[in-house]
Write a sequence for this structure.
């Protein structure tokens, strides 16, 4: 029941928001709902009763589908991320004005419902419903409240992801048609034993959808434009949480269902990911626009996660889990800083900024910590995750190119340091210019949001054990599902 | 049988009501009442009560599939009347005749949905088509309307010829018109194959499947918009039901002979419909091509011919008709029927714009709408039938369709403009649209509400 509550809170709360015409009321209500969701998700992680974490009821029985939700280690972690992200985003953007605030916040909450639905559903058809439910509100958010080029850009984003999702639908339908009991349930899919040929088909049908969402090279072209043009609150959701849908999808819906194909195509997928890491990092170095810089850096980070999934070993997967959570937190922190800078100076161009450090010490300190997390310095949360992921790829037993992949992916740390430190230097140090001379420091709510993020960064950087414990059982089970030892390979 | 007789009678009553009733409001009210009577008759028959005892000599069969589709067609017609019957006034002076013709179409739909003999199929198709030729040309002083009517009539007559030839050949091969007695033992007779092909082509023509679709955009565009709305929805769905029935009953056993051709027709229809719709500047023409594109999806039911396809086609008929009728109902009232004409529409009419969004999402096949679930049924039937490739092609084309449906959403919501509505939209109109949108969402979440009628 808890898991149902987790889904219904933002869903119903979002629907109510549409009727709160008053800006303050809508904003306050949304914050209230998101805090309640956070409380429920924390409760869900601490509760011992496994019954509370499952929910199932009849729905579309004639189609072999049911309304089944379940919370395991990974979905619990991602729900927690979603639930933490929303209050942070709302607090950080408390002072932003929106036209028709009721619609804006209503759509935001519906997106959250879609995200939680995606993470918790254990039925393929339901999963697909939520997958789209998360997409459609984002389309309206970006098109309605975004920047100048928002209409063509979000259109591209929508068609891109929609194409991916319909392909995924065919993949799921094919799997359904192969199940002996004609069911969309996740367990039935896991129990399938398809021929290698069929597995390859299904692998690509599903994988492309998730690769687009992540986004992974070469399906990433929608992403920088969309991040740049969306309203910042939406960008935070998109990059902090929504990209995890892709990673999550690969982990839950691809590898355990088609293990043989994932083994066979794993090198291709890893190569795509590694190319993406280097490509995105190199482009990030050249960016002059803050938002685009962070967008490309995000592609690089997510690429590393994608590569590690196909390494299929425990330390790597634990790293992915850690990093999914931490990357979300760090990115939201970066976007908050971008939002602050853009609102104060009216520009995101690195070349037009400089010398903020003397005027805004609090902002500088907080940003530098977040920037360190972005290049995964020790003592920050990202260090633990990235280190584990590199170890995972290095020790991977399923690919012959593990050393090559590790070496190439490792470049991302150096390249990441180049663009991140370059960014910090250009914004905060150097001479002040006309635009930045009247800088004032950040406000209380922004300090609060950034402060929480920095605390999370340091806390999980120094003591990551709680996160590791959370997903430990899940990763073990998962490795059993994806193991191809029964096929006589490896 | 109830529906057939009641709707034919209603047609006759409407024809003569022009002499008796002086005001258009009275005519309209009468039409609504008669349609409600027809619906009541259909529901009664679906629940097992037949008011008229007519021996059809085994030429017709009123099974649940036929009756349920008849009900769907009637209810969509009611939605159409409720939204657009007032706009028929602007077409011409023969107001009551338009209603009469629509009732005749309804009786044709009953024939086309419940035939068991090829002769009844022919009658049904013709009874649907002839009133349509008239309705297409009902705007007498408009050259485009005349052209549409003439074009439709000439092309329609040609395809009717093909159909008759096909029926004759099938009769020659099998010695019967009864569609249920066409089992082939051993090799398929060449005459039967030839006849089946001719029937396939003529039905594809009626249902505007490519490459027999060339009449569709011109006829839909030229006809008065309020009649295009009916032609593109209920009537098109009826042709598909007849199509499905014909191929299930008569030619299901010789699938080898036609599966490949039908799959080519499906692929071509989807491709041409969707790609051409992308380039349209007028919403009306876009909807004409979108109807071709949707026909491609409905055609998947003919291709797979299983239980899912039957349920799915009924759902598809309902989902597609309701959504398209809703969009047309608003389009009729617009002064500028291009995409630009809708700029800024959401600011002026937020509620109506929101319902249009639901309809467009339904047509595009986004989950939580009836359009998604009906597309889902079609794809499920296709994948079950083992044609993964065709299903993949179909969804890629569905992704293309998002482009032109969302263009309308963009115009309404994200572009500035001060469009002028030719006819004011009343509160009743608004609430009817909201009702239709609610039904669309409801069917999208609980499709069993409709499909269960097939069995219980």
């Amino acid at each position: 029941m808890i898991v149902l509550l987790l889904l219904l809170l933002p869903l119903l709360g979002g629907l109510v928001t549409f009727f709160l015409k008053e800006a303050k009321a809508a904003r306050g209500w949304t914050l209230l709902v998101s805090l309640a969701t956070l409380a429920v998700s924390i409760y869900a992680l601490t509760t011992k009763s496994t019954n509370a974490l499952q929910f199932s009821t009849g729905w579309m029985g004639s189609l072999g589908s049911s309304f089944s939700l379940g919370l395991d280690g990974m979905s619990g972690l991602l729900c927690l991320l979603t639930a933490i992200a929303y209050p942070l985003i709302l607090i950080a953007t408390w002072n932003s004005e929106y036209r028709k605030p009721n619609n804006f916040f209503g759509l935001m909450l519906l997106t959250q419902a879609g995200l939680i639905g995606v993470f918790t559903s254990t039925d393929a058809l339901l999963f697909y419903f939520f997958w789209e439910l998360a997409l459609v509100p984002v389309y309206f958010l970006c098109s309605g409240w975004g920047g100048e080029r928002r209409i063509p850009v979000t259109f591209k984003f929508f068609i891109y992801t929609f194409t991916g999702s319909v392909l995924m639908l065919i993949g799921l339908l094919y799997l359904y048609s192969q199940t002996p009991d004609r069911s969309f349930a996740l367990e039935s899919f896991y129990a399938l034993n398809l021929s290698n040929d069929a597995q390859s088909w299904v692998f690509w049908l599903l994988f492309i959808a998730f690769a687009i969402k992540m986004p992974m090279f070469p399906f990433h072209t929608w992403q920088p434009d969309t991040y740049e043009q969306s309203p910042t609150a939406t960008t935070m959701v998109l990059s902090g949480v929504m990209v995890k849908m892709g990673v999550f999808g690969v982990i839950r819906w691809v590898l355990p269902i088609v293990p043989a194909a994932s083994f066979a195509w794993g090198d291709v997928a890893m190569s795509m990911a590694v190319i993406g890491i280097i490509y995105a990092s190199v482009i990030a170095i050249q960016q002059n626009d803050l938002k685009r810089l962070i967008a490309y850096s995000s592609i690089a980070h997510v690429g590393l996660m994608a590569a590690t999934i196909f390494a299929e070993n425990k330390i790597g997967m634990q790293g992915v889990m850690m990093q999914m959570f931490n990357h979300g937190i760090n990115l939201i922190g970066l976007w908050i800083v971008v939002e602050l800078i853009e609102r104060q100076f009216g520009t995101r161009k690195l070349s037009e900024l400089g010398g903020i450090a003397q005027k805004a010490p609090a902002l500088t300190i907080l940003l530098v910590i977040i920037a360190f997390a972005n290049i995964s310095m020790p003592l920050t949360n990202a260090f633990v995750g990235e280190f584990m992921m590199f170890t995972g790829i290095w020790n991977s037993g399923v690919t012959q190119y593990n050393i090559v992949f590790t070496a190439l992916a490792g470049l991302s740390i150096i390249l990441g340091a180049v663009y991140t430190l370059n960014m910090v230097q250009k914004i905060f140090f150097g001479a002040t210019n006309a635009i930045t001379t009247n800088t004032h420091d950040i406000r209380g709510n922004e300090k609060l949001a950034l402060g929480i993020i920095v605390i999370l960064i340091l806390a999980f950087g120094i003591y990551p054990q709680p996160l590791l414990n959370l997903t430990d059982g899940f990763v073990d089970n998962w490795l059993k599902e994806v193991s191809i030892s029964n096929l006589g390979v490896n | 049988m109830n529906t057939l007789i009641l709707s034919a009678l209603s047609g006759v009553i409407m024809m003569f009501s022009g002499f008796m009733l002086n005001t258009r409001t009275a005519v309209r009210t009468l039409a609504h009442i008669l349609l409600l009577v027809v619906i009541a008759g259909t529901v009664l028959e679906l629940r097992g009560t037949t008011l008229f005892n007519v021996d059809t000599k085994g030429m017709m069969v009123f099974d649940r599939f036929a009756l349920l589709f008849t009900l769907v067609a009637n209810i969509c017609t009611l939605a159409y009347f409720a939204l657009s019957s007032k706009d028929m006034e602007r077409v011409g002076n023969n107001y009551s005749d338009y209603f009469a013709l629509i009732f005749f179409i309804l009786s044709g739909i009953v024939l086309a949905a419940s035939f068991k003999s090829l002769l009844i199929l022919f009658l049904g198709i013709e009874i649907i088509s002839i009133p349509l030729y008239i309705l297409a040309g009902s705007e007498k002083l408009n050259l485009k309307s005349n052209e549409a009517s003439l074009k439709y009539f000439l092309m329609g007559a040609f395809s009717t010829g093909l159909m008759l030839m096909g029926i004759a050949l099938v009769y020659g091969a099998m010695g019967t018109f009864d569609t249920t007695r066409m089992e082939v033992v051993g090799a398929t007779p060449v005459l039967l194959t030839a006849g089946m092909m001719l029937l396939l082509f003529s039905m594809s023509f009626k249902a505007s499947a490519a490459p027999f679709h060339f009449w569709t955009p011109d006829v839909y565009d030229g006809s008065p918009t309020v009649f295009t709305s009916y032609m593109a929805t209920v009537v098109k769905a009826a042709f598909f039901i007849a199509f499905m029935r014909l191929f299930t009953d008569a030619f299901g056993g010789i699938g080898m002979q036609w599966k490949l051709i039908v799959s080519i027709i499906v692929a071509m229809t989807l491709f041409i419909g969707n790609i051409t719709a992308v380039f349209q500047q007028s919403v009306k023409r876009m909807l004409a091509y979108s109807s071709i594109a949707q026909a491609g999806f409905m055609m998947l039911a003919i291709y797979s011919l299983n239980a899912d396809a039957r349920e799915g086609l009924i759902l598809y008929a309902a989902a597609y008709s309701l959504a398209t009728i809703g969009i047309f109902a608003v389009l009729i009232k617009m002064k500028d029927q291009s995409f630009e004409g809708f700029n800024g529409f959401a600011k002026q009419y937020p509620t109506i714009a929101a319902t249009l969004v639901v309809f467009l999402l339904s047509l595009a096949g986004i989950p939580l709408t009836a359009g998604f679930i009906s597309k889902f049924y079609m794809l499920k039937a296709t994948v079950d039938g083992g044609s993964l490739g065709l299903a993949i092609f179909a969804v890629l084309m569905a992704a293309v369709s998002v482009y032109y449906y969302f263009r309308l959403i963009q115009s309404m919501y994200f572009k500035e403009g001060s469009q002028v509505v030719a006819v004011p939209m009343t509160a009743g109109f608004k609430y009817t649209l909201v009702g239709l949108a609610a039904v669309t969402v409801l069917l999208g979440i609980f499709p069993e509400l409709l499909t269960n009628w097939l069995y219980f």
Summary: Chain B has one domain: 2-454.
